[in-house]
Write a structure and sequence with these properties.
H-NOX domain; Arc Repressor Mutant, subunit A; globular; two-stranded antiparallel sheet; five-stranded mixed beta sheet; alpha+beta
Length: 334
């Protein structure tokens, strides 16, 4: 089942594109996305379509920073119960903890973690979808929105200590760096924002203790109605493969606490194989590294667990019908 997510931010994106005179037909293109899914007060959309819509918006506007730009000045009130619970919280710290706790109400595609917030100032997020789902614009949208809203709610130019994104980017780096006013790393192991402890205790101008108590009650009730969602075997395996794409199936099974036969059976039930998961990961990462970095082909091959550049090149041509060099040349011309 495709993970779902709130369609509110896709809805605001479509509205913004329409204001720029871009027709629905152009917005959708050949993506197969139905904009009807975004109608109403509580739209839900498959995360694959949500991410694709943001990537499509980049294409039709020619704006390489589409997600970043759309996030600034966002009307957070459109987020409904979750965001109202967050912004009525007393401090930045409680706001972020509440957003992480109640995120599941809006969908099952994103896992927002504040486990390391109190000790290390970390807020981390990742998506329970295959790595082949390109989500660069939406990731930058989310990271920018968090910091922008914190600044507006505290009336302070809160500056993170560090911002990390899992995707790669090699163009238009300065606008993002200027906005965050800190080190921004790409190709990290996780999407992550590190905040200063002093900033976590800043009071929110929108804090309302009585409203906060009431909204927390509503949010807890909404959370109780959800069935717990366990990560699929494919997503769990992808996390292991990401750490070492050359890992054997036997080693991956041990890390997952099961036999190789059990892992194989569960993957078959999920409609895939160990080789299929590894290949999908390698293909997605190869395209990202070739288009988003200046890494040598030998370096890409090494990172993806190939013995040499020749073996990597053969695999890449099988996936894409073109060599890594040809693919990079095409990506550079966009």
């Amino acid at each position: 089942m495709t993970p779902k997510h709130t369609g509110i931010w896709a809805q605001t994106l479509v509205e913004a594109l329409r204001k720029r005179g871009i027709s629905d037909q152009v917005i959708v293109g050949n993506t197969g996305i139905s904009l009807r899914a975004l109608e109403g007060d509580e739209p839900k959309i498959g995360f694959d379509d949500l991410a694709l819509l943001f990537e499509r918006a980049e294409e039709v506007t020619g704006d390489n920073l589409l997600g970043f730009h759309h996030a600034k000045g966002l009307d957070y009130r459109r987020g409904g119960l979750i965001t109202y619970t967050g912004v009525s919280s007393p401090t930045v710290r409680t706001c972020l903890h509440n957003l992480a706790r109640y995120q599941r109400i809006s969908g099952d595609a994103i896992e927002l973690s504040t486990t390391n917030l109190d000790d290390h100032g970390l807020i981390e997020w990742h998506f329970k979808v295959p790595r082949s789902v390109v989500r660069r614009q939406y990731v930058e949208f989310g990271g920018t929105a968090v910091v922008d809203i914190i600044r507006r709610l505290t009336n302070r130019r809160v500056t993170p200590q560090k911002v990390e994104f899992r995707h790669f980017r090699k163009t238009n780096l300065k606008p993002i760096s200027r906005f965050f006013s800190c080190t921004v790393e790409y190709g990290s192991d996780e999407n992550r924002i590190t905040l200063k402890q002093a900033d976590l205790d800043l009071p929110l101008r929108s804090a309302d203790n009585q409203l906060y108590k009431l909204l927390r009650k509503f949010s807890e009730e909404a959370l109780d109605t959800l069935c717990p969602e366990k990560p699929s075997i494919v997503i769990a395996l992808e996390e292991r493969v990401a750490a070492n794409p050359g890992k054997s199936q036997d080693d991956a099974a041990k890390e997952l606490g099961m036999s190789t036969r059990t892992l194989s059976r569960r993957l078959t039930e999920a409609g895939t194989t160990y080789f299929g998961v590894v290949e999908a990961y390698r293909e997605a990462m190869a395209k990202s590294m070739l288009a988003g970095t200046d890494m040598q082909f030998t370096e890409v091959a090494y990172v993806l667990g190939y013995a040499d550049a020749s073996t990597f090149s053969t695999a890449f041509k099988r996936w894409m019908g073109k060599t890594p060099s040809q693919y990079r040349g095409t990506a550079a011309s966009r």
